[in-house]
Amino acid sequence: MKAYRDGILVNLTKDEEAAVIEERGIILIPSDTDINAERDRRLDLGVTFAGHLFQTDDEARARINTSRISAMAAIMGGAQPGDLRWPGVDKDFFWIAADDVRVPMDAQTMVAFGNAVAAREGLLIVAGNDLKQRIAAGEAISNIGDDKLWPA
Fold first, then answer.
1. What angle do helix axes 107-136 and 32-43 make, rounded to 10 degrees?
2. Tell me, what's the pLDDT at 93?
3. Are 44 and 28 in contact, with CB atoms under 8 Å apart?
């Protein structure tokens, strides 16, 4: 938010902005861009799967999806549960968790992991769209960062 201070247009600090909003009883309406930014922030927070937190930024989600597709192909090719060498290399397959722990995954587990990440992304996209529709319908939602507005 900008305001004039001593005749000069300045950016208010978050504290100054909050004080003005409270003093005047102003309700700020988040824009679609604000909602998208909050959705994307939440997408990047990670996903817990099999007791481990995994990174889910854009690059990580792309890599997870690529491995999920490879795992599906391996299953169609006969990869069995418990077979950690399903990618066809002489090393056990694993995914590295956010704390750098190597988590072994057979093809079936990789598909389940990829599906969990994709499902989380879908839920966040729908929640963001729901917020946009609620605001467009006139609902006053000022704190889009409230966890109650987003899937757990």
1. 160
2. 98
3. no
